[in-house]
Amino acid sequence: MLNGLRSNGTRGMEIVARDYGPGIADITEAVMEGFSTSGGSGLGLPRVRRVTDEFEIASEVGRGTIVAVKKWAR
Ligand SMILES: Nc1ncnc2c1ncn2[C@@H]1O[C@H](COP(=O)(O)OP(=O)(O)OP(=O)(O)O)[C@@H](O)[C@H]1O
Ligand SMILES: [Mg+2]
């Protein structure tokens, strides 16, 4: 889901990504650069966090994951 935002005359956007996958047992580990259980680069989450202004993850093992980010124009 992509939302346009406006706050105090500043424009921004919000992206919320939700899945009903396996969930993330250890979020601290999952956001560390290079950590991967899939054989991927392990850079996805840390880079999304770095390029956004607000970054939130909610996850429950066996149920799924929600990642919500906001980015403000500067
Ligand atoms: N939506 C998700 N559901 C369950 N586990 C996830 C999810 N997103 C990330 N993870 C876990 O966190 C780890 C790190 O995620 P991250 O996106 O940083 O790297 P990656 O997906 O392994 O590789 P890539 O760099 O290609 O994104 C993943 O390997 C996986 O174990
Ligand atoms: Mg990834």
Structure report:
This protein has 74 residues and is of the alpha+beta class. It has one domain (2-72): 2-Layer Sandwich (Heat Shock Protein 90). It is 16% helix and 43% strand. A 4-stranded antiparallel β-sheet has the order 1-2-4-3, with helices on one face. A hairpin with a 2-residue loop joins strand 1 and strand 2 (10-19). The longest helix has 8 residues, at 44-51. The mean pLDDT is 97. Magnesium ion is lined by residues 40, 44.
Largest sheet: 4 strands, antiparallel
Q: What is the chain-wise order of helices and strands? A: EEHHEE
CATH architecture: 2-Layer Sandwich
Bound small molecules, which ones?
adenosine-5'-triphosphate, magnesium ion
Strand order of the largest sheet: 1-2-4-3
Briefly note the structural class of the backbone.
Answer: alpha+beta
Quaternary status of these chains?
A: single chain
The helix tally amounts to 2
Average of the residue pLDDT scores: 97
Helix content: 10-25%
Report the uncertain regions: none
The total count of strands amounts to 4
Distance N to C terminus = 22 Å
